[in-house]
């Protein structure tokens, strides 16, 4: 799960998908990263933590890191939050770039529409709730799509 800062959107996506993986007793690994390194080492944004916990998910132990080309090889699927994340991941992956395993997360909710998860960074708490709902529904579809 990849966004820009790895403190607002992708930490929610990591926590939400991990929660569902546990609920469905699946043996999947999930991680998140930011295309930017400005927040490396930081915990998720306070409002991402608050909204996750409001929905029964504790993401306080997660730690921001920057996306690296090896992630493209290490993971079966790379979900990006918006179109600029997609371009950055493509550029940063270099020779490892694999478009067949990279997609916008919301294409799992709105197939073929190429919608982005809005960045809640510049707004208030309501934006984080909206983002939670979008990611939650997309992750439900990921579970349905890939579970055996
Ligand atoms: P995120 O949000 O990509 O969802 O983690 C942002 C976090 C930090 C910044 C921008 C977006 N920033 O400019 O520092």
UniProtKB/TrEMBL annotation:
The keyword Hydrolase applies. Residues 2-145 form the Phosphotyrosine protein phosphatase I domain. The keyword ATP-binding does not apply. The active site is at 3 (nucleophile), 9, 119 (proton donor). InterPro entries: LMW_PTPase, Ptyr_pPase, Ptyr_pPase_sf, Tyr_phospatase_low_mol_wt. GO terms for molecular function: protein tyrosine phosphatase activity. PANTHER family: LOW MOLECULAR WEIGHT PHOSPHOTYROSINE PROTEIN PHOSPHATASE, LOW MOLECULAR WEIGHT PROTEIN TYROSINE PHOSPHATASE. This is protein-tyrosine-phosphatase. It comes from Filimonas effusa. The lineage of its organism: Bacteria, Pseudomonadati, Bacteroidota, Chitinophagia, Chitinophagales.
């Amino acid at each position: 799960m990849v966004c820009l800062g790895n403190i607002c959107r992708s930490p929610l996506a990591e926590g939400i998908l991990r929660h569902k993986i546990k609920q469905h007793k699946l043996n999947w690994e999930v991680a998140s990263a930011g295309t930017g390194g400005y927040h490396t080492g930081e915990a998720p944004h306070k409002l991402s933590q608050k909204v996750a916990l409001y929905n029964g998910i504790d993401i306080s132990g997660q730690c921001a890191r920057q996306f690296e080309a090896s992630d493209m090889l290490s993971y079966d699927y790379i979900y990006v939050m918006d179109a600029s994340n997609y371009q950055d991941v493509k550029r940063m992956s270099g020779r490892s770039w694999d478009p067949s395993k990279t997609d916008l997360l919301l294409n799992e909710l709105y197939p073929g529409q190429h919608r982005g998860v809005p960045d809640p960074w510049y707004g208030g708490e309501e934006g984080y709730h909206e983002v939670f709902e979008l990611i939650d529904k997309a992750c439900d579809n990921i579970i349905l799509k890939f579970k055996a």
